[in-house]
Design brief:
1 helix, Dodecin subunit-like, alpha+beta, 28% helix, 65 residues
């Protein structure tokens, strides 16, 4: 059965590398703890504020169990 899980992370100026690593860890922990058999796809998109500045990231994981 194919399922989809969405993860989000807000981004702060000058802290992005740590926040991306935190997001990677969140996704890896989900994979390890939820009997994920196969990762079908992973995609990222960013969210922005009214001025167009990036303020967050959304990662979508499509997987089989």
């Amino acid at each position: 059965m194919i399922k989809i899980k969405t993860f989000t992370q807000s981004l702060e100026i000058f802290k992005t590398a740590r926040e991306i690593n935190d997001l990677d860890e969140m996704v890896n922990n989900f994979i390890a703890n939820n009997s994920v058999q196969k990762v079908v796809s992973v995609s990222d998109s960013v969210t922005s504020d009214d001025s167009g500045a990036t303020m967050g990231i959304i990662r979508v994981l499509t997987y089989e169990v």
